[in-house]
Design a protein that fits this description.
275 residues; alpha/beta; TIM Barrel; nine-stranded parallel beta sheet; two-stranded parallel sheet; 11 strands; 43% helix; 17% strand; globular
Length: 275
């Protein structure tokens, strides 16, 4: 079965008002082995000014690779979320992310169905999701890149809903990026869901949820940007690790999604102790 490695999503640096390169260097200093950069389409002020961690896909993707190579970090995936049900928003974005990933050797591009358009029906949404995902899969297949479908929005908030999206397109490029925190907040049994998708898992967002956060939002939301430090919350990490070790046919990176550098340090210490 697969091995487990520990990584960090660059969202941990969002509160620090620092650029991508700072997030990479700091992740290496903390002792992480893998990193998950967030990429965006087009240009926006905050990252261009050096106050935000995302990288434009209009930049040379070797900007990402060179920074990670210099810090001794491996890239586990690109975080490139967008509404799969809105091809005009996410169609070219996800295909460009996949091409950039293929160029610099990033194995996974993570996404989800996103917030639906207000004027479409559920039936129409799934036609649109299938269209976007089929085009993306065609680009991913020939580059050896996996598309990690994440539980994050209205249709993927349940195991059945995520499976429905997964089965829209028959492609070896499509897999699952389970987000433990999103699954928990949506009111699901995280470990049962993980067991259900273990053979299709290509990446995992290691997100813990504090007791206070759970009391306030569980069953009311479909996800959250970041969680607390791994080990400080409600997720049963030893059980999660056991399921991945016994049920996943490939190596899996646990990409920590937390809100601050301090939480990132504590997450790494905890996960190392149980992995």
């Amino acid at each position: 079965m697969g091995n487990i490695f520990i990584g960090i999503n660059t969202e941990y640096s969002r509160s620090s008002d620092k650029p991508f390169e700072w997030a990479v260097e700091h992740a290496a200093e903390m002792g992480y082995e893998y990193i998950e950069p967030m990429v965006h389409f087009g240009r926006e002020l905050m990252s261009e000014a050096g106050y935000f961690h995302t990288v434009s896909l209009l930049d040379d993707p070797y900007r990402i690779k060179d920074a990670c190579d210099a810090a001794g970090l491996k890239i586990s995936a690109f975080q490139s979320h967008g509404p799969l049900g809105r091809p005009e928003v996410h169609g070219e974005y996800i295909k460009l992310a996949i091409r950039a990933a293929g160029e610099i050797g990033v194995p996974v591009v993570n996404t989800d169905e996103g917030i639906k358009a207000k004027w479409t029906s559920e039936e129409e949404d799934f036609v649109l999701i299938k269209y976007t995902l089929r085009e993306a899969a065609a680009v991913a297949e020939r580059r050896g890149v996996k598309i990690g479908l994440e539980c994050h929005a209205q249709y993927s908030r349940t195991p059945e809903g995520l499976d429905r999206i997964y089965h829209l397109v028959d492609s070896p490029a499509i897999g699952i990026n389970l987000d433990t925190g999103n699954a928990y907040l949506a009111g699901q049994d995280v470990c049962a869901w993980l067991e259900r998708v273990a053979d299709r898992l290509v990446h995992l967002h290691a997100k813990d949820i504090s007791v206070e956060h759970s009391d306030a939002e569980r069953g009311k939301v479909t996800g959250t940007p970041v969680g607390c430090a791994c080990g400080d919350g409600v997720i049963d990490w030893p059980r999660v690790i056991d399921i991945v070790r016994s049920g996943c046919p490939r190596d899996i990176v646990f990409s920590v999604e937390c809100g601050t550098p301090d939480q990132a340090v504590r997450s790494l210490e905890y996960l190392k102790s149980v992995v």
